[in-house]
Amino acid sequence: MIFAEKSGKYYFHYPFPVAIVGSKWDNSINFMSAAWHTQISFDPPLYGVAISPKRFTKELIEKSGVFSLNFIKYDDYKISGFVGRTSGKDLDKINFFGIKYIKGKKLDVPILENAVACYECKLIDSKTYGDHILYVGEIVGIHYNENEYKDGISDGLLLYAGNDMYTKSENTYLVKFGKEEVKKEIDKRKKL
Questions:
Q1: In this structure, what are the phi and psi dihedrals at residue 43, rounded to the nearest 5 degrees?
Q2: Strand order of the sheet with strand 165-168?
Q3: Domain boundaries, the chain
Q4: What is the pLDDT of residue 177?
Q5: How large is the average pLDDT for residues 150-171?
Q6: Is-contact 166 79, C-beta < 8 A?
Q7: 16-191 classified as CATH 2.30.110.10
Q8: Cis peptide preceding 45, ω within 30 of 0
Q9: Where are the alpha helices (DSSP H) in the chain?
């Protein structure tokens, strides 16, 4: 195994699902791609997304106190590139790229029409870590396309592989190894 003391840009934990962050303040609506996001808590349902302070989305989230997290299929990878490699400060992404969206049910957030799932989030905390700000939102509503999920997993979800490369999730090789399976394995090994 190779050791590098200085990491530079690192992608060894990729691929990772792409989240398209939707934000709105006044008449400004914006979407941006984010690869750095995570579930934080089930109770209450909390989700975090890391955003550069240079991003227009930062301004909209801080003014509105709300955001959406949209998850899309691999076939829609161009949307991720369009909204991730352009700035809402310079370009009306919605009109320029023909992005279709609907309004959230509980919050005034934009939701991609073609999202397979979306979380409506109310901002509860933010903190700067290094060169990004971690925004933590409480999920107040979830939208999802039931036809896109089998056993709770979407086949073909867009994943970011780093360096502007995308791939997709596939349910071809699923294995269940949880609490019950571990207990059986422990019991079996104890008998040896």
A1: -135, 100
A2: 16-17, 158-162, 165-168
A3: 16-191
A4: 87
A5: 86
A6: no
A7: yes
A8: no
A9: 56-64, 77-84, 93-97, 179-191
